[in-house]
Design goal:
single chain, seven-stranded mixed sheet
């Protein structure tokens, strides 16, 4: 089983799929799923954009990619996604239309993940629930925790909600071990900011890998303070001032014979898709 991992796509919904398609063609290695660490940019209605997204969208229409390409039918996009035949499972970030996502979550009360786009290829997983991805040979067990933490008692929907804390409390009582934790925010143990609930999960539940985004920091790999989990800061899938993607923005997680390994996709590969050509690739 191979899974491509990205973070902070900010409306560039097609870009992870295109990078995976190119990776498969160049390496001959099949990818089974995409996992995404939040800030999808899931804004179906432009009037609901938050201030930061409005600011960026004035200079970069890519910020509105969900609205433009994934809320109304585009035959070319559908054909591409159908041929690729792959789903992307995301956690919520802080830059999403949470009212829109809340309604979809309520409409799918019995599903741990729910589709959010017109093609049925982009999914959001509920925070704190046990999840699994399956192929013929392997099963990947993971948990997603979306949104961001807050130390000021704010309750806006970009921050973790009480019903999600309730699910996380139940997770803490399980004796299960998991392959992967996917979050948007980081834990708050080192910096004094982040999400306290992530720290609590990492201290009480065994994960082999933790992938997160959000912070704007470069790619980083280190052993968590729990001494067990490999903590990976995924570089945001954003183009720099030269129109290039940064190191660590695409990671391949492989599970084979029960063993997990990661590949940091080389910049020589990701540089083939730039801000100026990725839509036509």
């Amino acid at each position: 089983m191979k899974i491509a991992i990205f973070s902070d796509i900010h409306g560039k919904i097609l870009l992870p799929f295109k990078l995976v398609d190119l990776y498969q063609k160049e390496t001959g290695s099949k990818i089974d799923f995409i996992l995404q660490c939040g800030d999808i940019g899931a804004y179906p209605i432009i009037e609901n954009l938050d201030k930061a997204t409005i600011k960026h969208a004035q200079y970069d229409r890519d910020e509105l990619g969900f609205h433009d390409d994934f809320t109304k039918e585009n035959p070319e996009i559908r054909a591409f996604l159908n041929e690729l035949n792959m789903n992307m499972i995301c956690v919520r970030g802080n830059h999403e239309d949470h009212d829109f996502l809340d309604e979809l979550e309520k409409e799918n009360p019995d599903q741990s993940i729910f589709p959010i786009d017109i093609y049925g290829r982009v999914f959001v997983c509920r925070s704190g629930l046990e999840q699994k991805l399956e192929t013929e040979d392997e099963v990947l067990h993971f948990v997603g925790i979306g949104r961001i933490g807050d130390r000021k008692g704010r309750t806006e929907k970009r921050f973790i909600q009480d019903y999600e804390r309730f699910e996380i409390k139940k997770l803490l009582k399980t004796n299960n071990t998991f392959d992967v934790l996917i979050t948007h925010d980081k834990d708050d143990s080192q910096s004094g900011y982040g999400m306290a609930e992530i720290r609590e999960v990492l201290d009480n539940v065994i994960f082999q890998y933790h992938f997160y985004g959000h912070t704007g920091e470069p790619f980083k790999e280190e052993t968590d303070v729990n001494g067990i989990t490999q903590s990976i800061k995924v570089r945001e899938l954003e183009f720099n001032e030269n129109g290039m993607l940064e190191k660590g923005c695409m990671i391949i997680l492989t599970k084979e014979n029960g063993e997990l390994n990661i590949e940091i996709v080389d910049e020589n590969f990701t540089n083939k898709m730039t801000k100026f050509n990725w839509k036509t690739q």
